[in-house]
Amino acid sequence: MYKRQVPDPRLDKLAELVNPQRVLPTSVEILDIAGLIKGASKGEGLGNQFLANIREVDAIIHVVRCFEDDNVIHVDGNVNPVRDKEIIDLELIFKDIETVEKRLDKLKKQAKSGAKDDAINVEWAAGLLAHLEQEKPARSFVVDENQAELFRDMYLLTSKPILYVCNVDEASVLTGNIHTERFKEAVMDENAEVLFICAGIEAEIAELESKDERMEFIEAMGLSEPGVNRIIHAAYHLLQLYTYFTAGEKEVRAWTIHKGWKAPQAAGVIHTDFEKGFIRAEVIKYADYVKYGSESAIKEAGKMNVEGNDYVVEDGDIMHFRFNV
């Protein structure tokens, strides 16, 4: 597992305006899980270990090979990203079937007491099992509010949101190729984002020492940013994450929260005491900070809002918390 900083030009702009002692971006943790093969659900290869790793993550970034290269041998003899995806999907579904079968057995025993809710849960779980047995992922199964907690408690592998990354050759990084077209058609009904990334280009970018060199190379390739940045941004969107900022002379810092969080929850990301003793939040909109250039000018313009417990934090808010413990 490794952390990757979340690139955010808003943080850079705030740092330029505030000129703090330090600048701290937020980050995401990415776990590289390799070696999932046919039969993994039955323990083939290192299947049990890798499936356990997948169970712990919040979302899946599925990388598929979409390039031809005689020097890079494919384990199945030829390049076919649709087939490769289906192999992984089936292994995850098989493991989920096993999980649901075990839970269904427990629910049936509980239902013998005659409780109405237990009987409803048995029927619901049986429907989920039938869905999986049709080789459909759990994420496409409709879950109502009454069974939401039961569904989450199963920690099903195929319930996790997914992002597809097509690893292509250099010539296909902008427009794709025949492999990516077939792949996009295969995942059309999944409502999942598909990105094109060239691992060769990313390796060359990583070797360049200065930011200017990297940007010059990226622009020469017809790109606007490194592929890894696009993956991070897409993962943020997939997980419904927002960023808010704190800004002062000591530091300008980015913080990660979930979309829909209220001010006390956002304060708790900094320290639990901030949430427990929350009094109020002083909120500045990013556009106002850029427009007026300083906190004092923002206050003079009356653009700093004082918000209470029910304020829903917006992406890009600059916040100061008042609390008492």
Explain what the structure shows.
The chain has 325 residues and is α/β, with parallel strands linked by helices. 43% of the residues lie in helices and 18% in strands. It starts with a strand and ends with a strand.
What labels describe this entry?
flat, 3-stranded mixed sheet, 11 strands, alpha/beta
Question: In one word, what is the shape?
Answer: flat
Distance between termini?
A: 36 Å
Radius of gyration: 24 Å
Q: What is the chains' assembly state? A: single chain
User: How would you sum up the major sheet?
Assistant: 3 strands, mixed
Query: What fraction, in percent, of the residue positions are helical?
Result: 40-55%
Number of strands: 11
Derived from helix and strand composition plus strand pairing, the structural class reads alpha/beta
Spatial sequence of strands, sheet with the most strands: 2-8-7
Unreliable sequence segments: none
| Secondary structure tally, helices | 13
The portion of residues forming beta strands comes to 15-25%
H and E string: EHEEHEHHHEHEHHHEEHHEHHEE
Integer average pLDDT: 91
Question: What is shown here, in short?
Answer:
With 325 residues, the chain is of the alpha/beta class. Helices cover 43% and strands 18% of the residues. It is flat and about 65 Å long.
